[in-house]
Amino acid sequence: MAGARSSAYWAAAALLVGALAAIALWNASAYPPFGGYDEAEHQAYAELLIHHGGIPGPEVRGEYYTPPGFYAVAGLALLLGDHVHPSNPVELAHFENVLFLVGTALLVLLLARIVFPGRPLLQLAALGYYCFLPVVFKTGAMFHPETLSVFLTALSLYVGARILARRSFGRLPAVALGVTLGAGQLVRAFSLWTFAAVLLTLGAAWLVRYAPRRRLVAFAGLVVAATALVAGPWYVRQAIKYRNPVFDQPTESRPFYERRPAAFYTSLGLPQVFSSPIRPEFLNEALPTTYSEIWGDYFGAYAWGAPTPPDERTARQLRRQNQLGLAPTALALAGWLALLALSLRRRWLRKAPERLLVALLPGLGILGYLYFTVSYPTPDGDVLKATYMLTTAPAWALAFGFAVDRVGSLGRWVALGLAAFLLATAVFMLPFLVFHDPTGFL
User: Fold this and answer.
1) Which pLDDT value is given to residue 188?
2) Average per-residue pLDDT in the chain?
3) Would you say the C-alpha torsion 80, 83, 89, 91 has a positive or negative sign?
4) What is the pLDDT of residues 355-392, one digit of tens each?
5) What are phi and psi of 399, to 5 degrees?
6) How far apart are CA 167 and CA 222, in angstroms?
7) Model pTM?
């Protein structure tokens, strides 16, 4: 029986990752070369970097504050694409994203197995959440840094959790973790949240004496040094040229707390969030816009092309997306809050601080996202893109898995009913996940 359960487990994992890969491969070939967020600017950056070794300045567009890591990797794909696929070289960069998507899915599974060993339902639920999260497919189809960024975040979480679980606080593990964290910051500044989660978790481990304190301090120092060695030159360059080493210059001089009205924080966007979840409904309202970007396509960069309204079939699917997203969102939020509360307990910290590492990331991501979106208000609300929080997706996946596992523990029939419901949810999402299915079957 144990062997049968193991075979079923790995078959289910393979099926989930295979579905992700198949859809991502289709999207890579079907998605247009300039359809994504600021895609012309991203491609111009990659071309400039790979052909001339240059980085755009502020006179071009705001991408000058984005680190060059993604553009170096994607630029190589463009360079190769010019020779093997000259009619559409960007398609090769889109296929590169498939590797990052699949790699992240595998890391989510490995991370869940380290943080929650012996919990197969939790592990598979976490993997399933990531493999059917709409914002993952939407961003993965684009020429955009976030897909590589989330891969490096998942890798950092995996390396950090493995170190904590095994108490491997040596020099080589510290350097490996620091290099991974630094590489993430060379792709997107939003990886700073992962860096903060690692340091806070090490601080908590120090407080409860999870390992000898001197050893933990030395380990943390090496992690910071390795991270600074990799990402430091970029931040120094930005600080010298533009004063702010992380983000673009502020768009407003008003005090931080005056830059957004109260509705930005409190509005739920009802009923439009379920009846018409597209731009310009609930403009510059954080909750409904971000939610619609996670589960649907508020800005019209994937399922439909703004400013032209979507056709009725697409509009119906977008409404359905926001309805389908309610249950997974509720489970992920409940799982995160429960996991965070339990992870902060001294007993849990002394036993498994790697759980705190996972639990901290969603909260830090929300705080960072709010800081960014409040600091840089725009009339069209285009800073409210869920891609800016995509690096937290692996942690949200484990929080979702934690909630599913808790609900499933109520009984076999409860677990089977929940599994059937979530499977049906994933099936109903397929028409959105598969980009412009030409057969009309989905």
Assistant:
1) 93
2) 93
3) negative
4) 999 999 999 999 999 999 998 888 888 899 999 999 99
5) -65, -40
6) 15
7) 0.95
By the 8 A CB rule, do 120 and 39 touch? no
Query: What is the C-alpha radius of gyration for the chain, rounded to an integer number of angstroms?
Result: 21
Number of neighbouring beta carbons within 10 Å of residue 200: 15
Distances (CA, A) of 107 to 154, 234, 363, 364: 6, 27, 21, 20
pLDDT at 251: 61
| Chain segment 133-192, per-residue pLDDT in tens | 999 999 999 999 999 999 999 999 999 999 999 999 999 999 999 999 999 999 999 999
Q: How many CA atoms lie within 13 A of 80 on its CB side?
A: 12
Kindly tell me the sign of the dihedral angle through the C-alpha atoms of 66, 285, 324, 315: negative
Cα separation, 442 vs 98, whole angstroms: 21
pLDDT exceeds 70 at position 61: no
Collect all residues with Cβ–Cβ distance below 8 Å to 104 and sequence separation of at least 6.
130, 150, 151, 154, 393, 394
Q: How many helices (H) and strands (E) does the chain have?
A: 19, 0
Neighbouring residues of 77: CB distance < 8 A, sequence distance ≥ 6: 89, 92, 93, 95, 96
Q: Which residue has the tokens 């193991």?
A: 6
Contact between 118 and 405 (Cβ < 8 Å)? no
Per-residue pLDDT reduced to its tens digit, 76-116: 999 998 888 777 888 899 999 999 999 999 999 999 999 99
Least Cα distance to 216 among 137, 163, 147, 155 occurs for 163
How confident is residue 4, by pLDDT bands cut at 50, 70 and 90? Answer: low
DSSP one-letter string for 277-314: -STTTTTT-HHHHHHHHHHS-TTSSSSS-TTSPPPHHH
Contact 403, 124 (CB under 8 A): no
DSSP assignment of 190-205: GGHHHHHHHHHHHHHH
In sequence order, which residues have a C-beta less than 8 Å from that of residue 139 and are 6 or more positions away? 36, 146, 147, 387, 390
